[in-house]
Design a protein that fits this description.
Layout (H helix, E strand, L loop, with lengths): L25 E4 L10 E6 L5 E5 L2 E5 L4 E4 L10 E6 L5 E5 L2 E5 L4 E3 L7 E6 L5 E5 L2 E4 L4 E3 L9 E6 L5 E5 L3 E6 L2 E4 L13 E4 L7 E5 L2 E6 L2 E5 L7 E6 L5 E5 L3 E4 L4 E4 L10 E6 L5 E5 L4 E4 L4 E4 L10 E6 L5 E6 L2 E6 L5 E3 L13 E4 L5 E4 L5 E5 L2 E4 L9 E6 L5 E5 L2 E6 L4 E4 L5 E8 L2 E6 L2 E6 L3 E4 L10 E7 L2 E6 L4 E5 L5 E4 L10 E6 L5 E5 L2 E6 L4 E3 L11 E9 L2 E6 L2 E6 L11 E10 L5 E3 L2 E4 L5 E9 L7 E8 L13 E4 L5 E11 L9 E7 L7 H73 L5 H28 L6 H15 L6 E7 L9 H22 L3 E9 L2 E8 L15 H10 L3 E7 L2 E9 H9 L1
Parallel strand pairs: 59-64, 65-66
Antiparallel strand pairs: 1-28, 2-3, 3-4, 4-5, 6-7, 7-8, 8-9, 10-11, 11-12, 12-13, 14-15, 15-16, 16-17, 18-19, 19-20, 20-21, 22-23, 23-24, 24-25, 26-27, 27-28, 29-56, 30-31, 31-32, 32-33, 34-35, 35-36, 36-37, 38-39, 39-40, 40-41, 42-43, 43-44, 44-45, 46-47, 47-48, 48-49, 50-51, 51-52, 52-53, ...
Helix pairs in contact: 1-2, 3-4, 4-5
Length: about 950
């Protein structure tokens, strides 16, 4: 991330390293990292946890990984910005040399007054933002000046909020004021406050009633209404003050910054990892990170890592520290590096220990060991075996011996055991003689019991008993391994290997188990092992440092995700007081055994943008992003905010609608989805840290991919209806086709019948008419031949003549019916009318008629016309023969498709329950049923009525039948 000062040094332990011998851990961001300008004036944070940094060259927004910059080209009234505050609804208020500006998340708006500077912006718990405008209190939310002390000429020199977000103000010559319930109330203090020019205020969070006051003349503390000057050792002018979550006070000055606790005062400056530049602003973010804005050196973040490092910046010529041991005098620690031997003593500068040798290999230290007499043994790779005894340092081996000494222990007899490139050796300090025990290249050596030693080699481990019996340890997984370090813990021996991680061997049961990178170790190269006084096992590996719980032999999660990636050195580990010293290729790391774990603040995540391919401006319907089916390639960009360690942040996501489970953590901060099928979806994403800390929120976006028109319910409904319509149309077409065929057949049949009927009528008329005429003629000839007095014969001839006439009359009706031109309803009714008139022609009976068909022309079938005709001929005949009527009424009405034919007389009537057989009523009912008509005969002393009701559709049915 550009140039950063990642000098991984001190967390502020409870005991604290005072003095000048250590540097502190600060991370720096400047223009090379993307900061718009290096002169920082103010810092604030929005609800998405993004930092806003104002400079004298513009405005920057920081998400932990990258900066987004704003200037006059983006709408600011001035790049010379003096103050910032995050208001309600995530508005950012900006005070500059040209008045007030406001950023609403999309654009900038500027106040009309551009002549006066705005400084010291702050927002209270109600969301009202205040600032200082030309030394007057200014309500930015209302764009109005505010008078605190009823003096319109008052000069406000400081403005702040306390931990309850209440507004405090310092009025020169009048004192401190606090805004309560909309009223400015003076805070009771002694009179000397009126003489102070207060530039900043801190209301102590842990000590009620304690107020810190910054002035050009130093620091003052008000407590119990008494004001006293404090920390007179801080002589430089103080500019800004805050209190961290542990209660420590940070003060930014014109020369670095100060960290103040009841126990210590630390000055952060260029000499211990910070800067000597002016610190204009110190800010504590939501995660309790401390940010320091400087005048010229950019932005710094203080890293609360749980270790301190000593390297060449403290006087060690080589940062590759290979050995660590207690020094020969109390309170000292000796460090061996590839640049020589060094002594550390608290509050003193690290000094180099001279080795009386001209051989450069004598200054390449492989191991240090302090024996029971507090003598320090120094092993080198070919530069000799040395011992510091009191004030004397002497070489213990011969200059002719070029042995590489790798490790050393002292047994119960005081015998020195050495692990070297020539194998395992014993050394007698009195005779200065070596005895070679094993021949394998030695890596580590461990005292197992009073008379037993384990020698680690490049080819497994060997058990040495009584300095004579040598047996290879046949432990599963150990054979062939290169042993770098060993540790005895109760009934277990831990073997640190060069390739397979940590092997744990139970001496009593012989059971073994491995811990490696799959188990959570930083590396499978185990260089150093140590059990601290609390029982925790420390493991120095090739890629960092781990701690192990000895009860379960499980990895203990680190207190901080920002663990140093460092390569440890072989057997370079020491416990001193409450600290663990570990030699690495980047210096000595010093950890506290019981570091105070910080409260872990969960990260935050938000959606940056949602875009589609091809480009399409999405629409939101009730908060749901709605997209057409052909814009179903979606890119969702999101950002997790974890300012404590942005590099430790990963993401887990899911797309509800396709998958209900969250994905495995990954580093991608955007997701592309292609060819998403139509439906409703909800994308959710969480930010997680490397140690499993999940974000406080889940960012989400809901969207809907609209189906194509051919997948919509309406389209499917229309298709179904169309198919049904086609089926119905097909059925209708078939039925119509069949009906047309039927009608065609019927037409042909009717035409054939018509021809037959016509031909039959003509033939019947011609043939029967001729025969009847001949009978009539012959009967007349016969009558002329019979004597007039022969009454009997003449009566027979008369009967023959009557029968011929009746036969002719009946034949005429048959012929009339057979004629197709008489198949209409009006012809039938008129024929009945004519028949009635003809029947009463020679009688005194009056025949009336009324036929009203509403101009409807209706064809009838032969059967229909024949039955209607016969019913009413029978009725007329009955009225003439039996009714003794004077008037006969014949009516026919066609109304709304119903035909009603009525024949009514005023005769004597008859008993309809017991009619005479000759009345033919039975035949009439049969004929009516035959044509599906309703026949009703009503008769009493007032006459007889015959009513025939025929449905017009029935007429058509019989017409088409």
């Amino acid at each position: 991330m550009g140039r950063k000062i990642l000098i991984l040094f001190l967390f502020l332990f409870s005991y604290c390293f005072d003095g000048f011998s250590q540097r502190y851990n600060f991370e720096q961001y400047d223009i090379e990292d993307g900061l718009t300008q290096s002169q920082i004036t103010a810092i604030t944070q929005d609800s998405k946890r993004r930092l806003w940094i104002s400079t004298l060259g513009g405005l920057s927004r920081f998400n932990g990984k990258q900066f987004t910059n704003y200037s006059r080209t983006n709408g600011l009234s001035s790049n010379f910005i003096l103050s910032l505050s995050a208001g309600k609804n995530d508005e950012i208020w900006i005070g500059s040399a040209r008045g007030l500006s406001k950023y609403n998340g999309h654009s900038f708006s500027n106040s009309a007054d551009t002549r006066k500077w705005i400084s010291d912006l702050t927002t209270d718990k109600t969301g009202t933002t205040y600032g200082l405008k030309a030394k007057r209190l200014y309500n930015a939310s209302k764009d109005a000046l505010v008078t605190i002390s009823n003096d319109t000429t008052e000069m406000v020199t400081a403005l702040t909020t306390d931990y309850f977000r209440n507004i405090w103000a310092a009025v020169h010559g009048k004192g401190l004021y606090r805004l309560e319930n909309g009223k400015w109330l003076p805070f009771a203090l002694e009179e000397k406050i009126k003489d102070l020019v207060i530039t900043n205020i801190l209301v102590d969070e842990l000590n009620k009633g304690k107020i810190w006051l910054l002035t050009p003349n130093g620091i003052y503390i008000s407590q119990n209404n008494t004001i006293n000057k404090a920390y007179t050792e801080i002589t430089t002018e103080c500019n800004t003050i805050i209190q961290d979550n542990k209660g420590a006070v940070w003060i930014g000055t014109n020369s670095g910054a100060y960290y103040i606790t009841p126990a210590t005062v630390i000055h952060f400056n260029a000499g211990n990892g910070f800067t000597d530049n002016v610190v204009n602003k110190i800010f504590k973010d939501v995660e309790n990170n401390i940010w320091l804005g400087t005048d010229g050196s950019g932005l710094f973040r203080f890293n609360n890592n749980s270790y301190v490092t000593f390297d060449e910046t403290q006087g060690i010529e080589s940062r590759i520290v290979m050995a660590i041991a207690n020094g020969p005098t109390p309170g000292t620690i000796w460090l061996g590096s590839y640049g020589g031997l060094y002594e550390y003593k608290q509050n003193q500068r690290i000094k180099k220990i001279k080795i009386p040798s001209q051989n450069p290999n004598s200054y390449r230290i492989n191991f240090l060991h302090t024996d029971h007499k507090n003598n320090v043994w120094i092993g080198t790779p070919g530069g000799g075996l040395w011992r510091q005894s009191g004030q004397r340092m002497e070489r213990m081996d011969s200059e002719k011996e070029h042995i590489a000494y790798n490790a050393m222990i002292e047994d119960n007899d005081g015998t020195i055991w050495l692990s070297t490139n020539y194998g395992s050796l014993t050394f007698d300090p009195n005779t200065r003689k070596f005895t070679r025990i094993t021949k394998q290249f030695g890596g580590g050596i461990l005292k197992l019991g009073p008379d037993s030693v384990i020698a680690g080699t490049q080819d497994g481990a060997w058990l040495i008993v009584n300095k004579k019996t040598i047996t290879p340890l046949k432990i599963k997984g150990l054979s062939g391994s290169s042993i770098l370090s060993m540790l005895r813990h109760k009934d277990y021996v831990l073997f640190g290997t060069a390739d397979y991680g940590l092997l744990i061997w139970n001496i009593k049961t012989g059971i073994t188990r491995f811990l490696n990178t799959k188990s959570g170790l930083a590396s499978d190269h185990i260089y150093s092992l140590l059990e601290d006084k609390t029982g925790i096992i420390w493991v120095g590996t090739g890629r960092g440092i781990n701690r192990i719980n000895p009860k379960t032999f499980t990895i203990i999660s680190p207190n901080n995700e920002d663990e140093l990636l460092v390569e440890c050195n072989q057997n370079a580990i020491l416990q001193y007081d409450n600290n663990i010293w570990i030699g690495t290729t980047k210096g000595v790391l010093v950890y506290g055994i019981n570091p105070n774990p910080e409260k872990k603040i969960k990260p935050y995540i938000y959606i940056n943008s949602v875009s589609t391919t091809p480009n399409y401006k999405p629409e939101y319907v009730e908060g749901v992003l709605t997209l057409p089916y052909n814009h179903n390639r979606i890119n969702i960009n999101y950002t997790g905010i974890y300012l404590k360690n942005p590099g430790a942040l990963m993401y887990r996501y899911r797309l509800i609608g396709l998958d209900s489970k969250f994905s495995q953590p990954g580093s991608n901060s955007s997701m592309n989805f292609t060819a998403i099928p139509a439906g409703k979806y909800k994308f959710e994403v969480k930010a997680v840290t490397k140690d499993g800390l999940s974000s406080i929120n889940t960012a989400s976006v809901s969207f809907e991919i609209l189906p194509p028109y051919y997948q919509t319910p309406l389209f499917k409904f229309c298709i179904v209806m169309l198919i049904l319509a086609l089926i119905l149309f097909t059925v209708y077409t078939i039925l119509m086709f069949n009906e047309r065929k039927r009608k065609l057949r019927l037409k042909i049949k009717l035409e054939e019948q018509f021809k037959i009927r016509k031909q039959t009528a003509e033939d019947f008329h011609d043939d029967l008419g001729n025969k009847l005429t001949r009978i009539t003629v012959l009967s007349e000839v016969l009558g002329s031949m019979i004597d007039k007095d022969d009454i009997e014969k003449r009566n027979i001839l008369k009967k023959i003549h009557c029968n011929v006439n009746e036969l002719y009359s009946g034949t005429r009706d048959i012929l009339w019916s057979l004629n197709p031109k008489n198949d209409s309803l009006d012809q039938v009714l008129n024929h009945i009318k004519d028949f009635g008139q003809e029947m009463v022609n020679e009688t005194p009976i009056l025949f009336k008629f009324d036929i009203d068909l509403n101009n409807k022309y209706t064809k009838l079938s032969l059967d229909m016309s024949r039955n209607i005709l016969m019913i009413f001929k029978e009725s007329i005949h009955n009225s003439l023969k039996h009714a003794k009527a004077n008037v006969i009424n014949f009516e026919a009405k066609l109304n709304n498709g119903m035909l009603l034919i009525t024949l009514q007389d005023d005769g004597i009537g008859f008993d309809t329950e017991n009619p005479n057989e000759g009345h033919g009523m039975h035949n009439m009912y049969v004929r009516a049923k035959r044509i599906n008509a309703d026949l009703n005969i009503i008769s009493n002393e007032n006459g007889t009525s015959v009513l025939l009701l025929v449905n017009f559709s029935t007429l058509k049915h019989f017409k088409n039948a």
